[in-house]
Amino acid sequence: MHIDIDIEEITHAFPRRLPVFPLSSAVLLPGAVLPLHIFEPRYREMVTDMLAAESLVAMAYLESCEPEIYQTRPPFRKTVCVGRLLHHEALKNGRSNIALLGIAAGFASEIRDDHAYMTAEVTLREDALDGEVDCSDALARAFQASGAAEPPLADLRERLLPIAGSEGITAALINNCALAAPIRATEKQGLLEESDVLTRLDMLVRLLERPWQWN
Fold first, then answer.
1. Under DSSP, is residue 73 helix (H, G, I), strand (E, B) or coil?
2. What pTM was computed for the model?
3. What interhelical angle do 185-193 and 197-209 show, nearest 10?
């Protein structure tokens, strides 16, 4: 199932209450697309409720916690990315595959309610961006230095055009590169928390150009 997206209409409807999906392994950024497999019962319920409403979720970075805390109300970073369902594929036993489009960064304040999953009041953040700056050369050099086996930036830019206007393409390009980059989820969260898009680019380039030691 595919769902049409009206980003302007979505962003006009904030602040608002949204379900919260905290993960430590993945971070969503505005303009980027994140595929996910949904299997936990509470998040299967969350997806069902999303489909019955406006298909929005606050993707949050999960803080370290004890297993018993994770099963109830796991702690998460308050800077989140609002995601909208692009795709939903129902699987056996209530599981599903979904894809989320990042709409905008925001701040989440948890709300206590009766849902199995957490909910929060989310306020959007306006990022600072000089729309005249072309960052593609810097990103191309950074990906070459990192050795990342990703699609060419020209192809990435082409795929972004349907979901980002001419003024937003720079931010969307940076964020898609950040999502695909061979950097840790906690570092991607740090990029999300930076509201100045060009500073985010500088952070990403420095992360990609540094020597990597995974072990």
1. coil
2. 0.83
3. 160
